[in-house]
Amino acid sequence: MAVVQTRELTKVFKEGQLGAVNHVNLETREGEFLVFLGPSGSGKTTLLRMIAGLETPTSGDILIGGQVVNDLSPRDRRIAMVFQSYALYPHLSVYKNIAFPLRAQKVKKELHKGKVEWAASLLGIGALLDRKPRELSGGERQRVALARAIVREPAVFLLDEPLSNLDAKLRASAREELERFHRGVGTTSIYVTHDQVEAMAMGDRVMVLNQGVVHQLGTPTEVYDNPVDTFVATFLGSPPMNLVELGEVIVGFRPEHFRPASASSGDSVPFRFKVENREYLGSEWIVSGTLIGGKFEGKEIFSRLPSAQDLNPGDTHDFFVARRELKFFDRVSENRTEPRGLSWQ
Fold first, then answer.
1. DSSP conformational letter for 136
2. What's the whole-model pTM score?
3. Least crowded by CB within 10 Å, which of 87, 223, 288, 302?
């Protein structure tokens, strides 16, 4: 295991343009599963590729295990990378695919069998060693790619959207396998995804990026419950956090915090809401509509409400949000702030 650090790491592809990655300072924890999360073009893959040695930084340093590795080749960085494309050799058996890094590292041939069987057993593919990649399912190919990575016994795993080619059901089971694998091996891992469900389900910590800038780094609970700015607030969550302007302040609250007036208790803020559309999801409704009255008149919002709630388009209902659930953001900077003398009327 090793700690990965970056110091003011920057990558500019074309002079005069905004950097793909801008002054990123990062320090992983030993053995943690860290997720880089962001939309397309956020810089997450470029950052991962610089750590891997596949992109050269414009400026800044990368350290692995306390050693500056800027000038080291990917092979010498003690990392293993799993890509979105599994890049298996179609003409080689599963055994030979897994053993390939050992040949490249010039590991003695008599050691190959034990290492390959160890990696294959860890991922439950010991019975597939004689097959060719074309005979495998997508999930099995993903596990072969992981086995090929771990057979090197690296200090750090780097995973670039390795589940994106799988269907939804297989992705869920593959997530579980990856989590089980990480718990078993305990190697520091950095995982890139644009899928917030993957990030929240798998990450010990999540680093949210946009346009090459790190917006927030924290546990899944921290970034969801206490977003530092409106970007994080709206990028995480489905539907995203509701944001409504109230003078110089933007008020935010999650759709699940919008509750029927009959359940009101303690310090809360009342809202009147006109239903526009609804989606039935079995245990709940996803409802969109507009607020009625006061400074919130006409503001569009989303809510998640129990399926037992009687909701029809055109209906008007009274709801509330507990004051402790409200988040406030500066209208200009869009960063979290504290309200001063705020009036709801």
1. S
2. 0.87
3. 87
